[in-house]
Amino acid sequence: MLDKDEHVLVAVSGGKDSMGLLHFLVKLKKKMPKLELTALLIDEGIQGYRDRTIPNLVEYSKRHGVKYIIASFRDYVGRTLDEIVKESFERKLPYMPCSYCGVFRRYIMNAVARETNTTAIATAHNMDDMVQTFLMNLVNNNWDRIFSLTPVRKLSEDFIVKRIKPFYEIPEKESALYALVNNLITPEFNQCPYVKYNVRFTIRKILNELEDKYPGSKYGLLRSLLELFQIQGGIQMPVKKYYKCTICGQPSSHAVCKACLFKAELRLLTYEQVKKSIQDN
Ligand code: SF4
Ligand code: ZN
User: Fold this and answer.
1) CB-based pocket (< 6 A), ligand 1
2) Nearest CA to ligand 1 atom 8
3) What is the pLDDT of residues 141-192, one digit of tens each?
4) Which SS3 state, helix, strand or coil, does residue 104 take?
């Protein structure tokens, strides 16, 4: 997944999976000293949600000499997620909290990758995450999202930063065990108050029940997904054409990216600005 001299932005939440990934990469760096690592934690601005995980990342990073960045919705989007959700509900906009959260998190990750000249973004998606997302998008008939789950993903030649998922074959329980045996103290997350709006948690429950009854089901689903990638054209192939968003310059499947459209809906940008930027480009 990585060449020896890459600069990797490691997406961390401060919880067990992502701290495990960071630790794994810190150990890998001992074998590949030219590898550069920067940990990125995105603070969505959900009251109480990051209170324990931010100090956890800061403490680990200082102890192991890892560079870290804490990037907030407030700084990059202009509002906290709590403020966005409040406004969205009040104005009866048709989006759920997790939609804003996912889109703006990807937006911030790309922005920080650009600012720090990273060549790869590593996320801690494990096997459970992979098959949950696979199933969620099957339910929604969203094949673009399914094909964007490839373990190594490069959008196109124009966007050099690739996405990697080093833990994509590791079951969640093993990833937790790895954190435990490496003494990565990971505090329990405070529950996100918006979790009830997220279909993932129902799918997660269903998959765990399936696995309990028929062990190996998750692994079977993962294999099916990987075979789909092969049928579709190889695990590193770009799936569709990506453009540069005419407003923010980030990768987008349309002239204006979803983050900028959300900003316009939330009146952080005007539709005039959106129209003008499309006309000018
Ligand atoms: Fe974001 Fe939804 Fe997860 Fe909460 S549950 S952190 S809103 S994706
Ligand atoms: Zn944009």
Assistant:
1) 97-98, 101-102, 192, 194-195, 198
2) 98
3) 988 889 889 999 886 656 668 999 999 999 999 999 999 899 886 666 677 8
4) helix
